[in-house]
Fold:
Amino acid sequence: MKETEIPPEHPRAESLRIREKLVEHYKAGIVAKAGLFAHGRGEAFDYLLGEKTTKNALKAIEAAAAALLTAKHPVISVNGNAAALAAKDIVKLAEVTRAKIEVNLFYRSAEREIAIKKLLEAAGAKQVLGVGKAASAKIFEIGSERRRVDPAGILVSEVVLVPLEDGDRTEALVKMGKKVVAIDLNPLSRTAQFATITIVDNIVRAMPALVETAEKLKQEDRRKLESILSDFSNKKNLGEAMNLISQRLSELADKGTFISIAQKGKE
Amino acid sequence: MKETEIPPEHPRAESLRIREKLVEHYKAGIVAKAGLFAHGRGEAFDYLLGEKTTKNALKAIEAAAAALLTAKHPVISVNGNAAALAAKDIVKLAEVTRAKIEVNLFYRSAEREIAIKKLLEAAGAKQVLGVGKAASAKIFEIGSERRRVDPAGILVSEVVLVPLEDGDRTEALVKMGKKVVAIDLNPLSRTAQFATITIVDNIVRAMPALVETAEKLKQEDRRKLESILSDFSNKKNLGEAMNLISQRLSELADKGTFISIAQKGKE
Structure:
């Protein structure tokens, strides 16, 4: 069997198809090898969450939409994995929330930046910041080229959505006084912990939900949005996400063997 | 920054170095792209386990050593990730337990098989089964080239150690009446659930521990080994592993935000 073939009867066919999408974009120079590992990590947490958007994630999505809609200069920071898995929804969300789109990579390379820009433009983006010399401002951050940002984008933003980012980036932005919205399946990660609002969900489900929620909340007045924001506690919400996983594991542990050979595919 | 540079101050430097090892072996044709995702998954569970070998894992390691030592034809089934991360310990374990080493890949290719064989030989292996036409026997398994095994190895074995394997393989072997010892960080996985003995641990820690335990238990008489085996319940042990993760998450959930910006690096 070739590595690209997915047996349709495979119990994890959907998950494998998402992998395949990342591999295609890896070959196209959009996704870094680190992005393949990172995706695998996310898969594990998604597995533990039951591969669905929880009520807990929906609360964070509501707060995230309110944060983006009330910001003067919201920015969506895009890396290779985010572009590969959610380019269209990134463009839609930018339209609904008037956010700018900025390419921001851990492993910067002119080729990768341009490939991501093209992918976003093909998905309908009118402007893509942060590519090449446009990323002329520096922000302090440990050992990464990501200290470079666009002065027209992240530098002047108050709210930055960082789907699938790593901890260094989030920490640096929060230290600069910005609100960071993260999409991260791992509630224990440094990104999840440092962010202002953490959506513990798979980007392929969270982004369409975020677009839909932003469209709805756009009809509400500013006071309503501000009260959603002030009612949200990331600490409390992350604790809930961890408890959800913990409870699920504990239930499975009580059952002990929960997959038998006869039940294959029901996993 | 180049993708191969790891900032020494990075809080996850050790984990990144293991990734780098896999990337090197990916470039050398030993690790498949699927192996990079799989490793990421494992990382997530290792993170949840606290990145250490638990007492629970040690119990499984003891049972695994007993199973290999009491078998007439023990076999260690090796894929790309196992070879990349544990070639030397695979060879040591084969020596201590008189096990045969067989290359067995989900994504078979002559090049990858030969590259893995060479890596194992460089680590001291005298014989490597399953390469090319040597894998002439077929076992029933869904949609994978792994249905091919070596008639001098897995086909005639009663105990097969499958570090980092996937569910299909394990299920097929168990259906054939073989005892399967799996090393899998995910206690919920199909491999973990189907295996006879599941070591829920990182291969880089579990393999040296398995070698050491086998060396010790080799001094014991057969009755002692058989009683270790009969006292071991994989169902119970997997339940314990899930509970360990669940408890850890629950404790962290009570704390809520457990990484603050000031405490970075203590993660």
